[in-house]
Design a protein that fits this description.
4-stranded antiparallel sheet, single chain, globular, 7-stranded mixed sheet, alpha+beta, about 575 residues
Length: about 575
């Protein structure tokens, strides 16, 4: 399994584009990483950079970014709205694939040591990388910000984990860097229709997990209550895994609640939005929109879109793009500037345009382009890809009937029933669309194997093995098409029987398309299985394919009978 981690350093420069570009170039020139996002903020005077890659490459790139920032950013001259302690303020490593949080924590500790040893920049280790329990909280590491660093370095209890015994010229210039390891975090600002930082802070205290200090009498001016150990008694906020403050942004002329959601499983983005809206309304303030800083996982937006659709009693069985659009509009993600999911969603950015073009070369074509491509003298796309596409159209028709039924006047109480059917259809549709290109890729793999050299005995053996492996794959792909297309029949049957009667013919056409997909893919299974030398393996695949085909033929007949019955009764 590929090992991938993400790094999201926050640099204390958001206004000087030349400095920002030099830091980003230092990261990219390290090699082996992909910069996904660069998000500068003028008011905060801070830039969030997001990049991913193999662990070793990310650690090297992070070091080079810190080195460059430490040479270019003079913290003695820095001013901005966001708390900060150094030229590179925070430097978290985040597991993405094949790497544990504990492994990231070890990497972060090693990186912090290297930054101090090699660059002379003091480092604190926070969250999962913390050496001290209290330093799991970034706010503890950054307490007093840059200005408090001379005092902290002199205090053994507050000194950096890796740092000098006294305040050095390098520490004065570059400040201290907080190096950590954490799970994915969403940084988000909620826009308010007020200019009051005090009101924004009050809302932040209402919702953040830490909450606000308990006071005697007046909740604002009363004496802060201490416990028996002299620690401030806190009144917790309503959102778990959330840190928040209020501030005023000159650039926008509004106050915001600025939040880090550190546990997105406990507090999804849409839950945070709704709770900030509630707390704001209780104070006579309205949330006008949402600003995501850096990147966001796709699931955060699709979960939000589905949440708001369900609130409207609308079907969630629509395309991913439409679900995300609902999320954008519901939370006002485009309130301050256009929101382009292709530039903000981490999963979209992890794939290059070239990779996406290869992976989805056919399904990205227009209907006309796909038809003409099929009609060309090229052998691919051929019957296998066409079968998968016919299956996708069959599933799409069943999904359409489900969505029309969910939104049918007078059927409002049944919206969830049909929404669930539509979601099933979307999953089948998505799988079959992927198989359109996979079938053509399987054919191309066979052609590549036949094109391998065969001058020596060793080359012949390697070529023969490659041909057999490619042939087996080319047999398995259309069988996957058969399995996926066959799963459309229960959906189409339910829509013919229970769906919007005005669309019953669409369910019938869907059944015809699904059966054609199954039988078409069967032909491809048979022709490719004929080239397999392992006849036992071939017979297993053929037996399954024949069984699926027989069931598909019967399912189509049953659905068409129901369709004809419904049409006759109209």
């Amino acid at each position: 399994m590929e090992r991938i981690i993400e790094c999201v350093p926050n640099f204390s420069e958001g206004r000087n584009k030349e400095v920002i570009n030099k830091i980003v170039n230092a990261i990219e020139k390290s090699g082996g990483v992909k910069v996904l996002d660069v998000d500068p903020g003028e008011a905060t005077n801070r830039t969030v950079v997001t990049f991913i890659g193999a662990p070793e490459a990310v650690v090297e790139a992070a070091y080079n970014g810190v080195r460059c920032a430490g040479e270019l950013i003079d913290m003695r001259q820095h001013h901005g709205a966001h708390p900060r302690s150094g030229a590179t303020d925070v430097l978290p490593l985040i597991p993405v694939a094949g790497v544990s949080l504990e492994e990231c924590a070890e990497m972060a500790r090693g990186l912090a040591r290297r930054i101090y040893d090699g660059l002379g920049i003091p480092c604190y280790c926070y969250e999962a990388a913390a050496f001290k329990p209290e330093r799991k909280n970034l706010a503890v590491c950054r307490a007093g910000e840059y200005e408090a660093l001379p005092e902290k370095i002199a205090d053994p209890e507050k000194a950096p984990d890796f740092g000098p015994d006294s305040y050095t010229e390098k520490a004065a210039f570059s400040g201290a860097t907080n190096v950590g390891a954490r799970d994915f975090l969403i940084a988000v600002n909620f826009n308010l229709n007020t200019t009051s930082t005090r009101r924004a802070n009050a809302i932040a205290f209402d919702v953040r997990e830490k909450g606000r200090p308990a006071r005697e009498g007046n909740p604002i001016t009363g004496k802060i209550i201490k416990d028996e150990n002299g620690k401030t008694v806190m009144i917790p906020g309503t959102l778990k895994g959330c840190k928040a403050i209020g501030w005023y942004i000159d650039e926008y002329g509004i106050a915001q609640v600025s939040m880090n959601i550190t546990d997105i499983s406990a507090t999804p983005l849409h839950k945070a939005f709704e709770e900030v809206c509630r707390a704001a309304a209780a104070r006579g303030i309205r949330v006008t929109g949402t600003e995501i800083v850096g990147l966001v996982p796709k699931k955060a937006l699709t979960d939000a879109g589905k949440y708001f659709l369900e609130k409207q009693s609308r079907s969630t069985g629509i395309s991913e793009e439409e679900i995300i659009k609902i999320a954008v509009k519901s939370m006002g993600l485009d309130d301050l500037k256009p929101f382009n999911p292709k530039e903000k969603v981490i999963e979209y950015l992890m794939e290059t345009e070239e990779e996406a073009a290869v992976r989805e070369r056919l399904v990205r074509m227009s209907c006309k382009g796909f038809a003409y491509e099929t009609a060309s003298e090229s052998a691919a796309p051929g019957g296998g890809s066409i079968s998968a596409y016919m299956g996708a159209l069959g599933a799409a028709l069943g999904t359409m009937v489900a969505n029309l039924s969910a939104h049918k006047p007078g059927w409002d109480s049944r919206w969830k029933e049909f929404s669930d059917y539509a979601e099933q259809g979307q999953a089948i549709l998505k799988e079959l669309l992927a198989l359109v290109d996979k079938d053509t890729a399987a054919f191309n793999r066979i052609m590549a194997a036949f094109g391998m050299p065969k001058a020596t005995e060793e080359e012949k053996l390697a070529r023969d093995k490659a041909i057999q492996d490619a042939t087996l794959y080319a047999t398995e792909v259309p069988l996957k098409t058969m399995r996926a297309a066959s799963r459309a029949f229960p959906l189409l049957s339910a829509m013919a029987e229970k769906g919007n009667p005005n669309s019953v013919s669409d369910a019938g056409v869907g059944a015809l398309a699904a059966r054609s997909a199954v039988l078409g893919a069967l032909l491809n299974v048979r022709i490719n299985a004929a080239g397999l030398k392992d006849r036992a393996a071939a017979e297993v695949l053929l037996d399954e394919a024949d069984a699926i085909a027989a069931e598909a033929v019967q399912a189509e007949k049953d659905i068409l009978l129901e369709v004809e019955k419904k049409i006759a009764s109209e």
